[in-house]
């Protein structure tokens, strides 16, 4: 999975974080690396964890909580 988090307000407006990793949505807990970003988050690294609270295989819908820890310069 590739996930780009785009910030649209406040001091991070226009900055992004890039997450790349295997995101098996029907597993309850996953870890994925933050591999970079742009703007304020240029050269960022860190980890994103995801926890699935609810998933429906038939509709491919899910409720997922992401927790993101970022180190940036």
What does this structure look like?
There is one protein chain. The protein has 73 residues and is an all-beta fold. The protein has one domain. The chain has no helices and five strands. The protein has strands spanning 2-6, 16-20, 29-38, 45-56, 61-71. It starts with a strand and ends with a strand. InterPro entries: Allene_oxi_cyc_Dirigent (IPR044859), Dirigent (IPR004265). It comes from Capsicum annuum (Capsicum pepper).
Quote the distance from N terminus to C terminus.
25 Å
Biggest sheet overview: 5 strands, antiparallel
Class per helix and strand makeup = mainly beta
Mean pLDDT: 93
Quickly count the domains. Answer: 1
